[in-house]
Design goal:
Order of helices and strands: HEHEHEHEEHEHHEEEHHHHH
Strand order of the largest sheet: 4-3-2-5-6-9-7
Radius of gyration: 24 Å
Largest sheet: 7 strands, mixed
Number of strands: 9
Distance between the termini: 89 Å
Amino acid sequence: MLVKETLKILKENDIRLDRRKGQNYLIDSNILNKIVDSADLSSEDTVLEIGAGIGTLTIPLAEHAQKVIAVEQDAKIAAVLSKRLQELNISNVEIMVADAVKTDFPRFNKVVSNLPYKISSPITFKLLEYDFDFAVLMYQLEFAERMVAKPGESNYSRLSLMMHFYGDIEMLFEVSKHAFFPNPKISSAVIKLVPNRKAEINEFFIKVSRALFQHKKKKVRNALLNSFHEIADMDKKEAKKIVSKLDESLLSARVVKLEPDEVMVISNELKEILENLSKIEDFRSTNTKHAKNL
């Protein structure tokens, strides 16, 4: 039924889906029901849906929630969604024709979305700037696996590290590529994300984690030296002196095996070393100017 209905709507409205824009519509009713059930919706929930499309997920969400905020960037497709909602006499959906990465969202307490895959990373971190109960989100399988990966696993990455500090993530179920039209190249997965800020992440920590995970199979010492330019602008000889001041047990560990808290320790120690070095240089500069004035 869902397959026929989707193809009929696309044909009637002369809509040609573009894989490059992440326009892959869910056509598996079983998966659709599992997503809605996972959201545990009530008449008090306001749900944010990103990439609403023609309303495959929007409509069942609206049947269970108080309100749905449906964000769709394509104006033509948003118009089709609006028409469908009117025909079904559904009045609790607010359609936003906007780029989800660039727009501000109204208040919501849950997120349920089959995300456009090309914006998976930026939209996830943007969502985590908001206060909400939890999100049920569909990603490409590889991306989802990196989100939930643990230290020592092959998929453990900078994304895994960042997600550890931002929230609690659970892989709910995988979704075959045949559950979509048109078929994407790889399978997908649905995850549950509960915001849970475990530490304040600053720009310096992001730089350090980027430097480390560019060489995640190497030891920490070599990873930092090879990418110290990501952290500070100095020659390799000076960088080597700074890195050598870190804890030896951390320097000899493989990046891929670092616990998130260990990355935080490395970041904090490096920041303190660099700040102290900067104070010394400022002190020397001030004394030099004072001596010249004498």
